[in-house]
């Protein structure tokens, strides 16, 4: 089997497992299903589930990924364009694509599950705080401490809100997520300058 076929199969299996976990959470709540239930629903072994995911939270919210060192280095160095907001948007969009998190149908389902289950909300909030702090740190590393932590937090929170608006709009999936994000950023700019 070639690397690309293996990679495609890995992506398909990952998404199938995530979809099954999200559907089980939607239907039974986060505490209402087991790893065995996901394995059965996805028609894989329990071992396969653990080959792809470390926990139920990772199945529902996606695994916690390490930063892409190349993207981070370019961002911290002032790139790719030299304009902080544009670079933050581009780096975040490329990160979403790099992590394979740009499946719109899965993102819409994930958002619905997060918004409907208090346990998932709490786990998602904990993860968001970690990402927020890391992102703020990168902005301050790039721009210097005089930029201000509060201002950096606001930028990251604004970007997350824009990403959420893309998913909350339940896109039809015919356009790439990056296009939808760029359109939402343009809408935000227009709204803020009108």
TrEMBL record:
<dbReference type="InterPro" id="IPR023772">
    <property type="entry name" value="DNA-bd_HTH_TetR-type_CS"/>
</dbReference>
<dbReference type="Pfam" id="PF00440">
    <property type="entry name" value="TetR_N"/>
</dbReference>
<dbReference type="GO" id="GO:0003700">
    <property type="term" value="F:DNA-binding transcription factor activity"/>
</dbReference>
<dbReference type="InterPro" id="IPR001647">
    <property type="entry name" value="HTH_TetR"/>
</dbReference>
<protein>
    <submittedName>
        <fullName>TetR family transcriptional regulator</fullName>
    </submittedName>
</protein>
<dbReference type="InterPro" id="IPR009057">
    <property type="entry name" value="Homeodomain-like_sf"/>
</dbReference>
<dbReference type="GO" id="GO:0000976">
    <property type="term" value="F:transcription cis-regulatory region binding"/>
</dbReference>
<dbReference type="InterPro" id="IPR050109">
    <property type="entry name" value="HTH-type_TetR-like_transc_reg"/>
</dbReference>
<keyword id="KW-0238">DNA-binding</keyword>
<feature type="domain" description="HTH tetR-type">
    <location>
        <begin position="11"/>
        <end position="71"/>
    </location>
</feature>
<feature type="DNA-binding region" description="H-T-H motif">
    <location>
        <begin position="34"/>
        <end position="53"/>
    </location>
</feature>
